[in-house]
Amino acid sequence: MGHVKLQTQTGINAIEEGSEQFDAGYPNKTTVACMINAEIGAVLAVMRRNVRWGVHYMSDDDQLEHSLVQSLKALRRQIFSWQNQWHVISPALYLQPFLDVIQSDETGAPITGVALSSVYKILTLDVIDENTVNVGDAMHLVVDAVTSCRFEVTDPGSEEVVLMKILQVLLACVKSKASVMLSNQHICTIVNTCFRIVHQAGTKSELLQRIARYTMHELVRCIFSHLQDINNTELALINGETALKQETGGLSNEHNSANRQLENGSLNSASDGQPLSTGIASSTVSDVAGTVVDEDTAIASNGKGTDPSELQLMKEPYGIPCMVEIFHFLCSLLNVVEHMGVSPRSNTIAFDEDVPLFALTLINSAIELGGASFHRHHRLLSLIQDELFRNLMQFGLSMSPLVLSMVSSIVLNLYHHLRTELKLQLEAFFSCVILRLAQSKYGASYQQQEVAMEALVDFCRQKTFMVEMYANFDCDITCSNVFEDIANLLSKSAFPVNSPLSSMHILALDGLIAVMQGMAERIGNGSLSSEQYPVNLEEYTPFWLEKCENFSDPNNWVPFVCRRKYFKRRLMIGADHFNRDTKKGLEFLQGSHLLPDKLDPQSVACFFRYTAGLDKNLIGDFLGNHDEFCVEVLHEFARTFDFKDMMLDTALRLFLETFRLPGESQKIQRVLEAFSERYYEQSPHILANKDAALLLSYSIIMLNTDQHNSQVKKKMTEDDFIRNNRRINGGSDLPREFLTELYHSICKNEIQTTPEQGSGFPEMTPSRWIYLMHKSKKSAPFIVSDSEAYLDYDMFAILSGPTIAAISVVFDNAENAEVYQTCMDGFIAVAKIAAYYHLENILDDLVVSLCKFVTVFDPLSVEESILAFGDDTKARMATETVFTIANRYGDYIRTGWRNILDCILKFHKLGLLPARMASDAAEESELSTETEHDGGKRNTNSLSLSHLPSVSTPKKSSGLMSRFSQLLYLGTEEPRSVPTEEQLAAQQSTLQTIQKCHIDSIFSESKFLQADSLLQLAKALTSAGVRSKKGNSSFEDEDTVVFCLELLVAITLNNRDRIELLWQGVYEHISNIVQSTVMPCALVEKAVFGLLRICHRLLPYKENITDELLRSLQLVLKLDARVADAYYEQITQEVSHLMKANASHIRSHLGWRTITSLLSITARHLEAAEAGFDALVFIMSDGAHLLPANYVLCVDAAKQFAESRVGQVERSVMALDLMAGSVSCLEKWTNDAKQAAKEEEVAKMLQDIGDMWLRLIQGIKKLCLDQREEVRNHALLSLQNCLTGSVGVNLSHSLWLQCFDQVIFTVVDDLLEISQTHSQKEYRNIEGTLVLALKLLCKIFLQLIQALSQLTGFSELWLAVLSRLESYMKVRVRGRRSEKLQELVPELLKNILLVMKATRVLVRSSSVDGNSLFELTWQHINNIAPSLKSELFPEQDTEKVEGVRPDENNSVSSKETAGQDGPGIG
Known about the structure:
Blueprint: H1 12-17, H2 29-49, H3 51-54, H4 67-79, H5 91-103, H6 109-124, H7 135-147, H8 156-175, H9 184-200, H10 206-224, H11 232-241, H12 244-248, H13 251-256, H14 267-271, H15 285-301, H16 308-314, H17 320-333, H18 336-340, H19 349-370, H20 378-396, H21 401-418, H22 423-437, H23 446-460, H24 465-474, H25 482-493, H26 503-522, H27 554-580, H28 582-591, H29 601-610, H30 616-624, H31 628-639, H32 648-657, H33 665-682, H34 690-708, H35 718-724, H36 736-748, H37 766-778, H38 792-813, H39 817-836, H40 840-851, H41 862-871, H42 873-889, H43 896-909, H44 917-933, H45 960-968, H46 981-997, H47 999-1004, H48 1011-1024, H49 1035-1054, H50 1059-1076, H51 1082-1098, H52 1106-1112, H53 1121-1142, H54 1149-1162, H55 1166-1180, H56 1191-1203, H57 1209-1221, H58 1223-1234, H59 1239-1263, H60 1269-1284, H61 1293-1317, H62 1326-1348, H63 1354-1370, E1 1372-1373, E2 1376-1377, H64 1379-1398, H65 1413-1424, H66 1427-1432, H67 1454-1460
Antiparallel strand pairs: 1-2
């Protein structure tokens, strides 16, 4: 049966090892015989010391020796002659002689003591167990003999020895293997006997007191450890046959007789003060023992007469009946205070602490061992639910901290094992005991408060406790908000208001943090959450009728409690409105669909009945109103009460506690009528009709006023009360006993007609307890939560704010590292939950609170600040926690990033961060991606902020190790002593803290941050990186702004896939820096090159914002001139690298315009020009990266370089070559365009190509006028190449005409003008240029003559050419005609005429007005070379010209000309 097997103290095992064989684990037969023989000898030896037993005498019956001695000697003779094994010998045979000695009133204490020792020794041998013959009878004999032990008292010492041995034997009986054979009756007898000794030991020695209490404790443990082994068959038997106490009584009788049930228990004997032995020979234990036996019978039958079936049960092997009686007996010990007439708040230690504490300890042991098995046994459970808990409520308010502590331990055990059966009892315990005592305003001492707080924190450490409090009470409209009350108490108690931090504050904080850690552990468990069940009432719902289908299934109860909590919240708001204005309150509830649009009496009555916080005066006035609707509400209100089986005064107390009874007699009349009608309806046992109930209720109210009004001097007597109530029961009298009980109840406990207002923590009155027991029968089942986070979201929303505030205050005031760690654990738990539920505001509040403790002492020097930080454990722990939260839960930080950044900047100012933290954060991503995309080879041209030298800003030494080296070696100018060990330790602590923070991870891992958090981080960096506008910013401020910019660039690079999120803010920040900076400095340097670096890194990956990225580079163009000069070479290099790496990704005109603009500017910058031109060559060389989108831009850029006089002439010449060479691209695009599918598209493309071609030759045209001879002449040649090389470009005739007008003629004219207006110094060798220009004109004209001759405008074109030739013929260079031109012009003209004649473009004709082409031509030629006409068109042969042989030196064959310079257009 699971009992503990006690080993004897006489070395049995050693003896058995050398003995003979023995059967089935039993000791050797001879060995046991020897032991018993030794015990017989020991008893006889002690008896012989006494004269009475030591002499032989003769009597009338010739007996020589006393019967006790004879029986012992007879046993000695027999024991060695028994042949059987000991387990088949009846133990009574060898126990009886010893038991006779124990029971004899002739033996003295020494003899009785030895006999008891002998019995104890025999019991602890392994010869008596449940299989031994007649063991049951033997055990009964032992118990009967020991509990009726008689002996003469010779001295106090020997008496105490006997009492101790009695305890020893009784405990051995219960612990014996044969204890299962003991009956319920004998177990009760053993317990009562032991308690009697405990009681009498109060006058004895300390040792006896302790042994007696220990024995009692062990007895209870042994008995109740048997509870879980009792099977259901026995349970059914007990419930079926012994539930008379529950059935015959009735709750009302039980409650009202609660204070008088003590007479039925054993406490009469416990408190009658009768000692066990007060005389020399006459007073014996038998006097008390007899009383105990009688009491056992009385307990078994519960004082209602002896029931045969119950007596039979008491004689059966022990089980539930004896446990019920023992547990009831233990509970009755708690009533000893009432029985003795001592207040539980009294300081009488004897009863306020000692007896209750002893009883509570025993009860606690019983509950610990019985555990959950109690709920299988109705009678035991009923004792716990009612009598035990009622006493616990009473003793919970004891002045003794020990008693309160034990009460709390019992309730904690009950919570664990039986909370499903104790819902309302637990609520009452917390509301009326723990929450009252834990606050000083209710008069509790500091010790009481501390014990109550300890108890509360113990509960909070149970993982599901607060969840169950919230689900069962806060979400139940009929219960108080236990969770919120506990949360408020803990948070308030953690605040040290005008006092230093105490253990109470730490304790309260432990409770809060335990709750938070419980929530944190549940994170992610389960898919259900209160978040998933938003409640929105769209129609009226009777809130008091809400039901849950299955309280064990979370899918049912979670939405149910969420809905119920919604009702409760709305009702509380409605109550607040109602208390201010009754009508508006009801209207609000109608609007919330908690009351119907048309009010009905039942719904209003239920609102009054079930809503906490209503003004009870207003309810009373409403219910007492004569209005018909109010009267109906009153009767519905009365129907919400259950008065079944209640005494009238109790029912009236409960009724009047819910509102204030109005003062007007008519209102009182209506209220009492409604009450009486309801009471008579449910409890008509004694009353004849409802009028009797009404009259008696009136009488009770009058008696209550009479007895408890100080102004009434002459009080009503019992007889007066009975006389006043004659013949009210339907014309007859009520029973006198009934009226007497009512009278005394009212006299003892006043009916509060002005009940307490508000939702404080009321005291538990008897009537409230009765109502609680009634209510518990109908209350919803206790919801048991598992380890899943069903309601944590709602709970956290309530608890988080106070918890963060409490942790912050305690942390601020604490001076202990252990408390620091507790606070940090709390912060981490809160952060984890807030992040899980995406409660960004809460996480921000937490970060703000924590960052306040990251203190760096600005007024101190850097070295002193570092040492101070290293010595400040609080600051270091706060720092580690802040960055732990930032790294773990950064996704849900919003405005808190600003505070975190402030902390980072503090460490940056002290040089405690890694020197390359920002660049490393960016380059980590850069390295991995470039390795991936470039086949493992990192791009050596990539931009690194840390590699760029600052032009005007000196770099200060930074970084953690360099700072420490400064501390250690501070130079020779200002010698200092070597740092002390304490300083080195502080430095080491600082180093370790910064390393643990992993600050760089915030930025290097920012690619994993959620979008909103990333945006806020960027905003924090942007706002922190704004320079002071006062103009007096220090170097440190500038360094901070630079650092923030570096970090901003780092996170931008790390988030290339989400650049759209960040780009606008980053661009605006850099733009502000660029446009507000007028002098070179580190900030603008970092801004510009950071921007370039971003573009460089992102262009390959984000084609959708390529244009936007490139447009941002236009900021470079807005740089102040001084700033631009300082950085332009590097800028150009970076732009060049960027363009070379990403040329294939740049597609749009807009993007190329930015690039070419940047390159064009370099043409005027000495240092940057080379890099810029190199980039342009990269684009235009062989047309590698020329596109229709960038063609014109690149041509313009090349023109800029060609025009630039910065650097060597060769660069301008190369630029012209690039321009001329680009014609091949136009030819290629023309061919591509012709293959396009649609004609409209072809036409459009060809038109665009024509425009580009025109833009190209216009660009070269300007360079034909350059002052530099090499450039000017090369430009003309390049233009000629472009024009003659445009064969594959499909150019329209009109475009060619436009080319002559805008380009060729313009160049020829402008050069002519230059030669006349500028000196030779300005335009060296202009004559050679004029020659080239003229050749260009004639060559292109000859090339196009056949195609253009058909045009209507050909005549004008031809005349324009002749006009230019005529002008050049007349030109003077350095004051005289040019010989070269004089020779060249006729020659060129002759060739043109020959071709025109050969192609029949120019033929002899005449017109009336003389304006034919032929005539107009010769008008001009006559001015140039008159001889050409007769030479080329002699009159004798006008039709055919053959064999013309121009002068070999000055002319070219027309065939050659036509062959070489024929038309070049298709």
